[in-house]
Amino acid sequence: MINDLWYKNAVVYCLSVETFMDANGDGIGDFQGLARRLDYLAGLGITAIWLMPFQTSPGKDDGYDVSDYYNVDPRYGTLGDFVEFTHGAKQRGIRVLIDLVVNHTSDEHPWFQAARKDESSPYRDWYIWSKEKPENANQGMVFPGVQKTTWSRDKVAGQYYFHRFYDFQPDLNTANPQVQAEILKIMGFWIQLGVSGFRMDAVPFVIAKKGADIDKAVEQYDMLRTFREFLQWRQGDAIILAEANVLPKTDVNYFGADGDRMHMMFNFQVNQTLFYALASSDCAPLAKALEATRTRPQTAQWGHFLRNHDELDLGRLTEAQRNRVFAAFGPDKNMQLYGRGIRRRFSPMLDGNRDRMRMAYSLMFSLPGTPVLRYGDEIGMGEDLSLPERKCARTPMQWSTEPQAGFTKSEAPVVPVISSGAYGFQHINVADQRRSPDSMLNWMERLIRMRKEVPEIGWGDYRVIDVEEEGVLAIRYDWRNNAVMIVHNLNEKPIEVRVDPGRGQGSELLVDIADGSDSRADEAGVHHLYLEGYAYKWFRVGGLDYLLRRTQI
Ligand code: GLC
Ligand code: CA
User: Fold this and answer.
1) Is the beta carbon of 310 within 6 A of some atom in ligand 1?
2) Structural domain boundaries of the chain?
3) Average pLDDT over every residue of 509-518
4) Catalytic residues
5) Residues bordering ligand 2, an ion, CB closer than 5 Å
6) What contacts 24+ positions apart, CB below 8 Å, involve 333-341?
7) Is 165 in the pocket of ligand 1 (CB under 6 A)?
8) What is the pLDDT of residues 455-478, one digit of tens each?
9) What percentage of the chain carries pLDDT values higher than 70?
């Protein structure tokens, strides 16, 4: 039921329209501004854009509180501007994914307004109500410390309503067939306007049974098949990328054993152990996570990332591991959030250490799956810790040294531009980095090109190779008689390692795709590699011309 597996080897770039580029000078990013930046994105080499929510919204959770699913928020433009944008993206070979936020609506949504006012309204059952405050009302908050309860009393309805997230985000009763039909309709609408799929928000909560009498999580996985079938039948190459921070043993329920549910999922397990590996130079938990998340149907794919628009959630690490990451990358309480994560941008977490950052991106890009980049990370943008919660890492894109980083002509940008310190736009911006061959931006462009030239990563079988050094990770990929072995040294110090990539297929010769250097095996078939501190090596096994084996499905 699939007619294109483009997402197996995509490079995704996520951004928020609001903070990317303002074309009309009102201080708020918009679709016209974004459209003008499409050539920048095409130049970077990304193949898909994931847009954070841009539908009509009171904007209390940066658009994750939708009040009209069928419109563009007027601050960002019109539906016409949106279609101009998707058309422009398509012309450049860039696909567009959009956020699908249907676990909840804004409390200002007309559905909720109708539901609260009238018990006999057909919309009443679109939400979850209770006459009494349920006993477990102080459990299961997603934003502990900020959010006090999951059940709040609505004065108008005279009842309590359920909200997994903030109190202005009442949960939809997703078990209601009418709600499900509406979700399909929303998907159908946007694919008609040119999108290639959806990043589905909070999937475990969307499919959870909801109600005052529900004590433990019961997932209705069938719903996922319903969503996928609809989408696929409408448009064969459209996909769903699920946000589901779940344990590896449940992954298969999300992908579907036959590959009939979600096409993609973010790999939170690998993300957290990757940060632990960076903090401790101990790759063992990361290798274990790669093994634990191995099983997936052939047509499914992982999304890998370093940072996203939320806090870096470390909730699945052990306490000792988590504390290690806190100590390394977010030691101040003010850098931490919800008792489980770090709210910083990637570059300042690593003190802007160029070599270390490059090694980390190279590592993320070489993991079995599809890389997802966050806007601004390609130039190493920083955060503004004076902004609340996750807002600190959502500041406007820094384009140039012009006022407001060239983001807007207005003196009052919607979110303050970072304009002082080492991460201020005077020092970190696109215009300067374009001119400098060795900048993060130009390096990232080369990394993206290299990743696209190695489809083995997206398609192939992989194996973590034992190198007897816990700070070094080596992964070998095999696909269609081609093989690569990618080696990273997470240590600051140089190190020599013995690597046996396995016999056959020209394993005696390794050629680094990036710098052309090579290595020959000894008689036992072992390579003795000297790795600089934070080295990253992408070896083609057998040293074949890297452009020869290009056979995309
Ligand atoms: C997801 C989003 C987050 C949002 C929440 C509620 O976790 O990533 O940004 O606040 O859902 O929609
Ligand atoms: Ca604007």
Assistant:
1) yes
2) 6-103+177-452, 110-162, 460-552
3) 90
4) 201, 243
5) 22, 24, 26, 28, 30
6) 334/385, 335/385, 337/311, 337/389, 337/390, 338/143, 338/144, 338/145, 338/146, 338/311, 339/144, 339/145, 340/311, 340/313, 340/314, 340/315, 341/310, 341/311, 341/312, 341/313, 341/314, 341/315
7) yes
8) 999 999 999 999 999 999 999 999
9) 97
